[in-house]
Give the backbone structure.
Amino acid sequence: MSISRRTARSVRILGVASATAALALGAAGNALACNIRDFSAVASCDDNGKGIITVTDTDASGVEATVSVYLESNGADARMVGSKTVKGTKKGAIVTFSEDWAPNATYRVRIEAGKIVNEDISPQLTAPSDACKSSSSPSPSTSETPKPSETPSSPASSGTPSANPSESESSAAPATPGDNAPSPAAGTSNLAETGANSNTPMIAGIAGALVVVGGGAVFLGMRRRGASKSS
């Protein structure tokens, strides 16, 4: 009886150990198997300021998987961004999709890995609220002030020719104020002009008077002489 009891106890111990080992192997197999939790997706910007969607596969078993990305609109696929294959690694293998995503845009990421995985990454991918800033279009500098044009634009020339400055000045020159007397006729000398304005008439009158007086005196003198001779 004692031997049979020992044998039965040994069998039980072996059974328990075998079951424990099976569970451990099963758990290890499940841990190494590809599953949807091995995949993650993120929307970001590359070094050139362009939008990208990156999917990372950390499946250590290295099962080849197909990654498909779709843009969502009102709960439905608006368009397909792209589809690529990836083999996961423990450190993580990545695939990148070029996508000029809009802020807060929603994307569905589908994973198909043989008969092991065929489902979407949950929750769906949502793009950041700030759009990418492309480095090819530099932002305007606020410190610089606009410079005026070096060559000012000339006014449009009118169809009417401009008048000669000398002619316009001569025609626009006002008459010189002064005496209102008419200008002297051609050929009149300066002497005539001066005499007309001098005291010549008065001098001529005095001279005439003196001539008359002198003539009277001579006449009286001659009569006296004649009277004295006759006596």
Summary: The chain is about 35% helix and 25% strand. The two ends are 239 Å apart (CA to CA). The first strand starts at residue 39 and ends at 45.
